[in-house]
Amino acid sequence: MNVRFASATARRIVTQLRHDRRTVAMMILVPSLLLILLRYVFNSEQAFSAAAPALLAVFPFAIMFIVTSITTLRERTTATLERLMTLPIGKLDLLVGYMIAFGLVAIVQVLVAAAISLTWLGLEITGSVWMLLVIAVLDALLGTALGLLASAFARTEFQAVQFMPAIVMPQVLLCGLFAPRDSMTPALEWLSNVMPLSYAVDALDSVTRSAEIDGTLVRNLLIVAGCVVLALVLGSATLRRRTP
């Protein structure tokens, strides 16, 4: 990987985002607005504190997935990607550049959502706030990496959107948000054990309930980080210059 090419790609994407303020505003504010809505649906700080940590993983994950997959596909269908790949730049350099650019947006997105949740909405956690933020950002990066991977298999923006129920929704349903994973049928529990969002939610729940950084928490973080790297590598291997 060439750091100079990756950073140049990141600067180009950030510059484009600066000229699309509505999209940036939606990316940053939508998770917070959804958490605010949830807080008043429960109408209880205790109930909100029980559900919010998992949703701090789910909302940024889902939003970054759909935005990244559509943006990358648009660059390919408009031949921008084809022109870039005539230069001495590797596929991994491009994807890492996208990851850096969208990762910066994800950091702001998570900081805003966490700040609103911990202050105005009354979210209570036992563990470190900084660890909570690190895990939430890692979850957003996971959505970004999977979005980059999914964009390689879509030919139209409609197909890119369809990957959301195919890739994101099963993980949301099986991550333990609606029911404990160990209470599911053996087949569904097995599926949940191979989905990275499950480990992200487990890590956030652990930080919320305990200040101790144990081996299970470290394992969950390593699994999520490993899935981010794996998705980037697979995305670079399957990336095409343009959509036929």
UniProtKB/TrEMBL annotation:
Keyword line: Antibiotic resistance, Cell membrane, Membrane, Transmembrane, Transmembrane helix, Transport
Spans through the membrane: 21-42, 48-73, 94-123, 129-153, 217-239
Annotated localization: Cell membrane
UniProt-listed PROSITE patterns: ABC_TM2 (PS51012)
Record's GO cellular component terms: ATP-binding cassette (ABC) transporter complex
GO BP term, example: response to antibiotic
Topology class, membrane: Multi-pass membrane protein
GO molecular function, one term: ABC-type transporter activity
Record domain ABC transmembrane type-2: where: 14-242
Family: Belongs to the ABC-2 integral membrane protein family.
PANTHER family assigned: MEMBRANE COMPONENT OF ABC TRANSPORTER YHHJ-RELATED (PTHR30294), TRANSPORT PERMEASE PROTEIN (PTHR30294:SF38)
UniProt name for this protein: Transport permease protein
Organism phylogeny: Bacteria, Bacillati, Actinomycetota, Actinomycetes, Pseudonocardiales
